[in-house]
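Weekly modeling sync, notes
Attendees: AB, CL, MP (scribe)

Item 1: holo prediction request
CL wants a bound-state model with magnesium ion before deciding which constructs to order. AB pointed out that an apo prediction alone won't tell us much about the pocket. Agreed to run with the ligand included and paste results into these notes for async review.

Input as submitted:
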Amino acid sequence: MFVDRVEIDLRAGRGGNGCVSFRREKYVPRGGPDGGDGGDGASIILEAREGVNSLAQFANRKFWRAPNGAPGQGSGCNGRAARDLKLYVPPGTAVIDAKQHFVIKDLLKPGDSVVVARGGKRGRGNASFKSAQNQAPRESTPGEEGESRLVILELKSIADVGLLGMPNAGKSTLLSRISAARPEIANYPFTTKHPNIGIVHPTPDTSFAVADIPGLIEGASEGVGLGHEFLRHVERAGLLVHLVEPAPSDGSDPVLNYQTIRHELESYSPELAKRDEIVVVSKCELPGAEPVRDALAEATQREVRLISAVTGQGLPELIQRIARRLAELAAAAPATAAPDASTEAAGRITAPAGDRSPKPRRLPPHLTGLTAKLSDERQPRDFDEAGQ
Ligand SMILES: Nc1nc2c(ncn2[C@@H]2O[C@H](COP(=O)(O)OP(=O)(O)OP(=O)(O)O)[C@@H](O)[C@H]2O)c(=O)[nH]1
Ligand SMILES: [Mg+2]
């Protein structure tokens, strides 16, 4: 089951209460306070992990509770701190506060994590209130409540390239031809019901990820068909590949189909509509593909490619074109990212470059002072050195 958006209710653990207790033991009069502290409550941590590819584990369970810290006990026993609850999500999951609608954190890379609900702090036992003035304290503090939070987890797949097109345009077939992904393919619309990601290797040591999403139709922004819900899976893609079928089975005009998808894209997100787009005519071994290519090129004033997943025509060129464009985008990105990096570096306190060696340890005065030797000689010996 593929799940890409869930709302979950999180509550971190409560801290354990502190304990009020006095030492009572035969022959130990006024034993003093010995109530231990409680243990800290567990926090809830969300972590992106490689290999997790859907939010399915949250689909049937809305409430997640982290364990409470154990209370303190007599004889100076502190309560056990509860172990944090770690929940694993796919890389690319945005953690959103459901009440105030802001992104708490975008967990992009495997290993990225965020403490979404902090565990309650432990309560203090009466032993910790002991002082010279107050030698028999009867006070303790309760453990704090853990944070509770309603969050939305929204998976936006991490792909470099997104495939767009009407249903049945041949998106899944293209993905299966250029990568090891094996999406479902069939000769009817809406075969694909959830996104598929495939990794393409243009050269043995380079790769990019391609996302195939369910087809869009007119009115997708109003929820027609599968809606444009799945467009979020291409939101992170720097490059879109728009497939146009030359002879749709419903007899519609391919150029109009192209414009419909563009329109839907714009109504979903104007920002996404501005992304780089490569337009291709699929199934080009079928008759009538070339006139469609020419008509599209005229309508878009752009280069339009012909590909065929059946004969393999145009596929290596398309892969090379995508790889080149991605490399250009990657080369352009550091220039815009650079100011961020420098401001971050400026904010950080770093040691001067030359001062990396550890400081020499200072010896205690009885080993370095004037009397060090003297005191050594005067030490009582418990064996006779001469006799050894
Ligand atoms: N002749 C020919 N048929 C193709 C080609 N590529 C795909 N097809 C056929 O087109 C049909 C639809 O292909 P899919 O890959 O499932 O299309 P899709 O765009 O993923 O469709 P949805 O998942 O429904 O949105 C299948 O029957 C494929 O066999 C091609 O290059 N040539
Ligand atoms: Mg498909």
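Recorded for review: The CA atoms of residues 120 and 146 lie 4 Å apart.
Action items: CL to compare against the apo run; MP to circulate these notes.
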